Amino acid sequence: MMNDKMLEDYFKAYKAATEPMPSPQLMTNILARVDIEPSGWEQIIRNPWIVFDMMMPKAIGWALTCCLGVYLGFSSTEQIGGAIEDNYYTYDQTQVFLFEELNVEETE
Amino acid sequence: MRLDKVNNITDEQLMIRIGTGDKLAYRMLMGRHLNSFLAFAFRLTGDQGEAEDIMQEAFVRVWKQGHKWDTSRKARFTTWFYRVVMNLSIDLKRKRKPSIALEEALNIETNTPRQDAQLSDKQMAIRLAKALDVLPERQRIATSLCYFQGLGNKEAAEVLGISTSAIESLLVRARARMAQLLAGQKEAFLKEII
């Protein structure tokens, strides 16, 4: 296996060889594209519907969160209600807990 | 604007100005980062023409998406821009055929003299380029970000969207594989990747 120092030498050589100078045309091309393409606000002024496009992911996210919240809310109340129905019965406005094993000591 | 004031403006502040259509801010941001990101794109694609095309596309995105820059997220411009350049490079590389065959890459050792000390810088760079080309994509990108772009593990992890420990693991594996390849241990390398 190659040692770390030798590997570092390879890294240095590679780094030096892969730092190209941008061609003179590159900067001109990039700046020329900017003159053609409208900036963010110019796009919005030209086409206000973009705002809705931008808001859409957030809106969908909030809507899904709300749905999840409502679902969890309803499902948790159902569980509580179910538990009461299973284990209690109402006797003259009082809830009475039902024991499966009822040990009643006889008292005289 | 005074020069010291100009230097104090952060990339993120420039992005906000770009969002309002400020071309001077755009020029400044380009002047700061063009060379470094061009080198990054060049390392990922291996072709200067393609790297320049990527830079054009990436800077147009800066111009178009400046108004969406959200200061409340406290995101760094460079992290976001590395991601843009990385994704464009990956897309471009996947569209074209691989630049180097695995077999060719594994023949690095036989085509060149064995003694590393005798190799010129250019030969060393070519050999490392071939070794890098064989690495899995994420290892290659992690290597490029940390060793050649000079990013810390934390920022590189943010660029790749993984944890710091995951990037450390990627770097360790990448180093080991490159060392195996450059030392001519083809069997060990093949055993690991197959």
Largest interface: A-B, 34 and 46 residues
- What is the CATH topology assignment of the largest domain in chain B? Rna Polymerase Sigma Factor, Chain: A
Structural shape of chain A? elongated
Quaternary structure state of the chains depicted: heterodimer
Our measurement of the CA-to-CA distance between the termini of chain B, rounded to an integer number of angstroms, reads 58 Å
Cα gyration radius of chain A (Å) = 36 Å
Q: Report the helical percentage of chain B.
A: over 70%
CATH architecture of the largest domain in chain B: Orthogonal Bundle
Q: What's the β-strand tally of chain B?
A: 0
pLDDT < 50 runs, ≥5 residues of chain B:
108-113
Please count the beta strands of chain A (DSSP E, at least 2 residues each). Answer: 2
What would your notes on this structure say?
The complex is a heterodimer of chains A (108) and B (194). Chain A has 108 residues and is mostly helical. Chain A has four helices and two strands; from the N terminus they run ααααββ. The mean pLDDT of chain A is 78. Chain B folds into two domains: 1-99, Orthogonal Bundle (Rna Polymerase Sigma Factor, Chain: A); 111-194, Orthogonal Bundle (Arc Repressor Mutant, subunit A), CATH 1.10.10.10. Classes of the chains: A mainly alpha (108), B mainly alpha (194). Chain A binds chain B through residues 1-2, 6-7, 9-11, 13-23, 26-27, 29-31, 33-34, 37-44, 54, and chain B through 18-21, 23, 26-27, 30, 34-35, 38-39, 42-43, 48, 51-52, 55-56, 59-60, 63-68, 116, 121-122, 124-125, 127-129, 132, 147-148, 175-176, 178-180, 182-183, 185.
